[in-house]
Structure formats: C-alpha cells, structure tokens
Amino acid sequence: MLKKHHVPGVNKKHKVMLYALSTCMWCARTKSLLGELGVDYEYVDVDLAPENAQAELLETINVLNPNGGFPVVVINGNAIVGFKPEEISEACK
Length: 93
Prior knowledge:
The protein is 35% helix and 23% strand. It is an alpha+beta fold.
C-alpha cells in the first residue's frame, strides 16, 4: 500500500496533492512554499515509493503531465507542473 505523507496546515480550503522526488531541489522548494502558505496537503516522493507502486504513480503523473517532470502539484484536481510560486500561491488562496 502506498503511504502518502500528510502535512497539516491551517489552510484546509483546498485538496492538495504533491508528487515529488526526494532528490529534487524544486520539489523541496515547493514543500517549503506550501508550508509557508500554511496549506494542509499530502505528498509522495515517487522515487521512495515501493517499486510496485511507482508504475501506478507514474501513470497518474503522465495523465496530469504528459511531458514528465517534477514537482506536480494537484490543487482541487488542477495540476501545476514545476515550481511556480505565484501560480501555486494564487491557487491556494
């Protein structure tokens, strides 16, 4: 079973899921940004997920972002690909 990590925050207005890589600097910055914004969110570091779950995660990410790349932030079903602080901040208001 895939373990998603939950990061509690005061801003619970949106359903936020972050697909990241543990070694990705932009993914780390996205986590920091969501923390600064006080956003309640879940995340998974795809590269640390069990091998049997990675293929399913990559399929999900491919639907959201056919070009590949990380991070992928899904806010209320809408994907934001890459570290885009202004766009993420606006979507989390």
